[in-house]
């Protein structure tokens, strides 16, 4: 069998040739003249391939009459130029095999536009829709581009732990790991009736909220590394850009200062967006037509223009003078809210904005303290529609300053002995950032809700499958 995208990629080479395709029926339409038109999609691309079946042939008729939306089929036939509108080729069926029937009376996906809310209730079927299929292909392209970019830049891919004793101080709410005790008698009070130890084999452990601290270990040995893996935060609120489980890309570089870090972040985002613009045009067009009319413009602006760089202090000034009525007031010393981020990227600068030098008090202990002693060398990259997409910083490499920071922020020194050690033995300036893959997919597709850009969203109350 051949994948449908391969036929579309070189239509002329396949003309008059016999092919076998395998996929799922999207629609079937019967003409009075005894011809059936069957749209087949195999997931390789957005487009369906139209199959023409002559029902005067009994061996075809007996199968075709049962075909409905959702059926899994294999079609053997000859590729012909199509006289129909909307496609240049079609397959004239010689033989059709029905692998799995789908009862049209109960199959939830029909030829109409379903709401995203509805599709979330059928997470096992929604990847068969145009939208979710396109998201999956774009997400795949972005993920691959992540590796392409870092590998070409000489980074090493390291695997930081999922279960960790570090809660990455201040990055977010942690999930704690517990152990099921099979010997214990059932505990009727627990929702699942089981007994759990409080700890991971006698010691407390958590699901990682960031691989940064461990990535620092490897950056200070291999020079340039990145980690790209699942990340967990017990975000107990329902926003359109937070998940309890998401995928984070975290490069960490020795001998990089904040400026180097920012430049890397910029070329990285431009690279991965260009990859999608080059290779996923058809899927992108779907979003540009139905979801976000200014999508292409926003993506092309990002690739073309350099990011606007402003300090946190400047951002606060701009927001105060904006004349906008925000839900949350802006005061120097408070974190920016998504409404502020959107104002800066969508109204003020109309392109990505990098904010640097945040107040020391609102950032974690590991960020490098600036000479003014009031701010740290942090950077947030904001993009239109999504807001924060990257959070990064230069890390504090000076032993005395780090210890002071840990004291101020009440970070337990015993638990971070190894982290302190990195400043005692061959310390070097270093920097890194974290970018949530889902925020990137949201930005790339224009989709408003993060639940649509990950195959299996985990949010409060939802860990289905
Ligand atoms: P936010 O302000 O949006 O809550 P954050 O500042 O808490 O984000 P960081 O700790 O800086 O997030 O993490 C780095 C990046 O990881 C963020 O810029 C974002 O792209 C992504 N990210 C953070 N939390 C989540 C989440 N709950 N779901 C999806 N992506 C997230
Ligand atoms: Mg957060
Ligand atoms: Mg933030
Ligand atoms: Mg952040």
In round numbers, the mean pLDDT is 95
Count the beta strands. 17
Number of helical segments? 14
The molecules bound to the chains, other than polymers, are: adenosine-5'-triphosphate, magnesium ion
End-to-end separation in angstroms reads 31 Å
The name of the CATH superfamily of the largest domain reads Bira Bifunctional Protein, Domain 2
What topology does this entry show?
Layout: H1 4-9, H2 11-14, E1 18-30, E2 35-41, E3 49-54, H3 58-64, E4 72-81, E5 89-100, H4 116-120, H5 130-152, E6 156-157, E7 163-164, E8 179-180, E9 196-197, E10 206-207, H6 212-222, E11 224-232, E12 245-254, H7 258-279, H8 281-290, H9 295-304, E13 308-311, H10 312-321, H11 338-348, E14 353-359, E15 375-383, E16 387-395, H12 399-408, H13 417-424, E17 430-436, H14 437-445
Parallel strand pairs: 3-5, 6-11, 13-14
Antiparallel strand pairs: 1-2, 1-4, 2-3, 4-5, 7-10, 8-9, 11-12, 12-17, 14-15, 15-16, 16-17
Helix pairs in contact: 5-7, 5-8, 5-14, 7-9
The site of one magnesium ion has 3 residues, from strand 16.
Enzyme class: ligase
Pfam family, one: tRNA_anti-codon
EC number: 6.1.1.22
């Amino acid at each position: 069998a051949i994948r449908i995208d391969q036929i579309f990629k070189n239509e002329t080479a396949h003309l008059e040739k016999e092919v076998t395709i395998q996929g799922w029926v999207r629609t079937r339409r019967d003409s009075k003249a005894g011809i059936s038109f069957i749209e087949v999609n195999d997931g390789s691309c957005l487009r369906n391939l139209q199959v023409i079946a002559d029902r005067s042939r009994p061996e075809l008729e007996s199968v075709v009459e049962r075909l409905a939306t959702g059926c899994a089929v294999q079609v053997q036939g000859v590729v012909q130029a199509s006289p129909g509108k909307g496609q240049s080729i079609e397959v004239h069926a010689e033989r059709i095999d029905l692998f799995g029937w789908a009862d049209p009376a109960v199959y939830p996906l029909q030829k109409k536009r379903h709401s995203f809310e509805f599709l979330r209730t059928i997470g096992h079927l929604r990847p068969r829709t145009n939208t979710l299929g396109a998201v999956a292909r774009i997400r795949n392209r972005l993920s691959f581009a992540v590796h392409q970019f870092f590998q070409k830049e000489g980074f090493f891919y390291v695997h930081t732990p999922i279960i960790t004793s570090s809660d990455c101080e201040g990055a977010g709410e942690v999930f704690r790991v517990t152990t099921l005790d099979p010997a214990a008698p059932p505990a009727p009070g627990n929702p699942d009736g089981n007994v759990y130890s409080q700890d991971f084999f006698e010691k407390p452990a958590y699901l990682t909220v960031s691989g940064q601290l461990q990535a620092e270990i490897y950056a200070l040995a291999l020079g340039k590394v990145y980690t790209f893996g699942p990340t967990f935060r017990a975000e107990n609120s329902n926003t359109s850009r937070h998940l309890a489980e998401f995928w984070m890309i975290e490069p960490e570089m020795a001998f990089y200062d904040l400026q180097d870090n920012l430049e890397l972040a910029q070329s990285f985002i431009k690279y991965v967006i260009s990859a999608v613009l080059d290779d996923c045009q058809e899927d992108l067009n779907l979003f540009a037509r139905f979801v976000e009319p200014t999508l292409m413009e926003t993506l092309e602006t990002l690739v073309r223009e350099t990011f606007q760089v402003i300090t946190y202090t400047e951002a606060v000034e701009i927001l105060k003078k904006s004349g906008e009525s925000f839900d949350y007031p802006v005061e120097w010393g408070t974190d920016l809210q998504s409404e502020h981020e959107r104002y800066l990227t969508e109204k003020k600068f109309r392109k990505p904005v990098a904010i640097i030098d945040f107040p020391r008090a609102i950032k974690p202990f590991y960020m490098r303290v600036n000479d003014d002693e009031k701010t740290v060398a942090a950077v947030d990259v904001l993009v239109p529609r999504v807001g924060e997409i990257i959070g990064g910083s230069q890390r504090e490499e000076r032993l005395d300053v780090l210890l002071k920071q840990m004291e101020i922020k009440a970070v337990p020194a015993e638990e971070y002995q190894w982290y302190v050690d990195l400043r005692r033995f061959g310390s070097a300036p270093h920097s890194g950032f974290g970018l949530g893959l889902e925020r990137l997919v949201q930005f790339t597709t224009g989709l408003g809700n993060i639940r649509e850009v990950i195959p299996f969203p985990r949010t409060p109350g939802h860990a289905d499958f």
